[in-house]
Amino acid sequence: MASNNNKHFIVKYLECKHNYVARSNGYELDGCGEFCPTSAPETLESFICVACRCHRNFHRKVEVEVEDGVESPILSINHPSYGQM
Ligand SMILES: [Zn+2]
User: Where do the ZF-HD dimerization-type domain residues begin and end (predicted)?
Assistant: First the structure.
């Protein structure tokens, strides 16, 4: 693979997959759409999402290609097309 530009991958953590009703055959998520760290990196708290209070491991991990510090659109996210109501 040629590396003649500044593309590289960063890891992002998207929607929370924590199932709150796993014991009752159901499936209910908290609706958290993206992991938001609570505090500065390198602390235990930074692995807890500020929105849903779940550990980062519950969030879907994706690799995002970035070029020159600009994030590419994430194509793998399933979301309705906003602005087309
Ligand atoms: Zn969350």
Answer: 13-62
Q: Is residue 3 part of a domain?
A: no
Residue 77 lies in a domain: no
Tell whether 84 is covered by a domain.
Answer: no
Tens digits of residue pLDDT in 19-71: 777 666 776 777 899 998 877 667 777 899 998 999 999 999 999 888 875 65
Domain with 40 in it: 9-67
Question: Structure pTM?
Answer: 0.59
Q: Which residues contact 73 (CB under 8 A, 6 or more apart)?
A: none
* Protein residues with C-beta less than 5 angstroms from the ion ligand 1: 16, 32, 49, 51-52
From CA 8, how far away is CA 64, in angstroms rounded? 8
